[in-house]
Amino acid sequence: MVCLGAIKNESALSQLQKDKTILTIAFKKDFIELENQVLALEEKQALQLSDNVNVFDVGTTYESEKTRLKDLIDAKVKLHKEAIANFETSYIAKNIDFLTTFQQYSSGNKDLIKGIQDKMDKVQVVLTAFS
Fold this sequence. Notes:
Oligomer: single chain
Strand content: under 5%
Helix content: over 70%
Largest sheet: none
Distance between the termini: 37 Å
């Protein structure tokens, strides 16, 4: 019976690792994307300052683009914090479920082992009586 719990736990651990990898990759992709946007914005600003030419799209400025990127970064941070919180909550619940199941199997196995020991004791008494 405990073997079933171990298989379930291994599957949960495997899923945990996959989910963690997915979250990590998503975070790294977002970080790289945002880093590239910030670097591109800084390059535009440096070009504009050095050549005194407007390199921003009509209706945008360095400050408005900086604000847009800050809002985008804040939104991504919020999204990743929520994903991490959901990830933690999900696996806490799964761990509680596993431990509950494990305790149930463990209790069942204790009763089974006690029953087997009692029967072995009876057999030993009979063997002792015949020796």
